[in-house]
Amino acid sequence: MTKAITLFAIRFLISAHFASTLTNFNHNPTCLLMSTLRSENKHSDLTLQYDNHLSFVHRSALVVMHLPFNITINTFFSWKTTCIEIVTFFKSGDPNVFLHDLQNWGYQRNVVMYTIFPVLAHNNLISTDFFSRLTTFYAPVYLIELYFGEDGIKVYTGLLHPTEFILPLTKSWVPSLMHYDCENHRFFVSTGRRCFAAQGPLQLLRKKLNITFVPEAGDWHSKFTEFSVFQQSESLRLGIGVKRHIEKTIDYYVLYCQENPTLLSLKISQFFTIIDPWIWAGSVLLSLFLGISKLGGYSDIAAAFVKVSVLDGRRLSWFGLLCIVAMIAVSSSYDAIITTDITTPLEKYVVATIRELLKDFGFKLYGSSFSKDTTKWHLSVRKLPNEDDHVWKEEILPHHTFHEEFSGAAVFADSIAFDPMSDYIRNVLYFLKRHYTNVTCNVVKEIFYKRNIIWEFKYPGAEGLYRNLQWLSSNGLFQLYATLWRFVDEANIRKHPVVEQKGIGALENLFVAFQLYLIFIPLAILGFFGEIMFRKVHLNTIECVYCAG
């Protein structure tokens, strides 16, 4: 490594020449000039060259300031300057501290650096990673090595501004990028999962920027360069020299499921939630008042519903009114329930983590080693005990989300569904429709939370890489390859289509309501005939009593 760095640092070797001072810098008068000296000896030859340079700058009427020491870039208003030139003289001291001060400016667009050091200091820095870090700067760095001899100063110069880049990537990506044409759309689709959505744009960048892909390793390239494509987390922080490009923003939707309605699933107890409880209380109190005060009977509460006799001019009996009122009330209540089920969305259930469900509710997920198997989400289902202890019906709040965990879950009857990564949502729907015929699952168009797909890198020539990534985004190439990836991902689903549900459940609900009418109408008729029989028996009994008397 030392040999490679040495050759790279002085590959622009210029013929040696002699000079008494270094006053021949061609500084741009419109740029802010910053300079510093790092030397423990205040009376060395390098110190003299530093003083001569400052004198030259003042005679040239240039603006110069001392390079800030051990500060962050945010404390200096670099946006107020059009360009910056930095001239540093280094002989001794902590290379890491010196490098930190240079890093604040090395990743700026409008900066040029000149680093001057004697031969001994240069040899000492070669044994460290100083020059390796300098190669990651976006700004060009001119290296000036001074040899102080008896008859003058011998000057060697070099430039650290590479044009050929080595980009370390995940090992599993390199074979596809090197051996397959993932940029070709037809080839991308035909090779299936050999190409990934991000690999097509990467191959395009390789051609434009002359990038060589290598697997990540412990060499100096991977040590000082960073590159990754990932989903943004909440705690993401941008380090010095790291650039970030947002490829796309993903909107996550919650997946809700409900069991299709059956006759047994509708509870008559729901009737008591339809009528206002104050009406029930008032009716009961009125009935008690009529009975106790002898102003009427306890059953006269029916007068609130029916005021006209339908038999022989007398009041209806309690049994007859109860049958009629029960038929009207129950049928009306179920009309309201069914209408509500059709017009309102499903109730929302949120859990903190999918792991909580697996542990407490007894669900099991079985993964498949074959990634194309769309039935990899196997659910071992049983009833959910103590559901209210872990599942709650509330408004979905931001703190319910967790990074790299399934965002939400819906529990309804004996089924469970969750919202995984967006690329696999269709596979989950396919599995649920195929294995749970009595369950309807849909992705509700309600944004749960947003995530960004991030390209993050710290890389020599990152400005060119960043500009080209923006160009790819503006031309829609990322969306194109993402669409191709989903097309390949859904290949197995297209081979095994699922019979889609033609309705939205409304007809099924109405059919259940019709069954209820068929049940309660005969009950009312039987109650009516029962009342007639009861009255006839009652009249015959009275006549017999009179006859016996």
Produce a short descriptive summary.
The chain has helices at 2-9, 45-59, 95-106, 119-126, 130-134, 174-179, 185-190, 199-209, 220-224, 277-292, 318-343, 354-360, 425-435, 462-474, 477-489, 491-495, 506-548; strands spanning 18-19, 32-38, 64-66, 84-90, 111-118, 141-149, 152-160, 165-169, 211-215, 226-231, 243-259, 365-366, 378-379, 409-412, 415-418, 439-458.
Write the CATH architecture name of the domain at 2-160.
Answer: 3-Layer(aba) Sandwich
- Fraction in helix: 25-40%
Which consecutive residue ranges, at least 5 long each, have pLDDT under 50? 1-21, 263-275, 303-314, 341-355, 361-384, 390-422, 503-507
The amount of beta strand, in percent, is 15-25%
Shape: elongated
CATH topology of the domain at 2-160: Rossmann fold
Q: Strand count, sense and closure of the main sheet?
A: 7 strands, mixed
Task: Output the CATH class name of the domain at 2-160.
Answer: Alpha Beta
Task: State the separation between the terminal residues, measured CA to CA.
Answer: 129 Å
Q: For the largest beta sheet, what order do the strands appear in spatially?
A: 1-7-6-5-4-2-3
> With helices defined by DSSP (H or I, 4 residues minimum), what is the helix count?
17
Cα-atom radius of gyration = 41 Å
* Global structural class: alpha/beta
Count of individual beta strands: 16
Mean pLDDT: 65
Keywords: Membrane, Signal, Transmembrane, Transmembrane helix
Transmembrane segments: 277-295, 316-334, 510-529
Signal peptide: 1-21
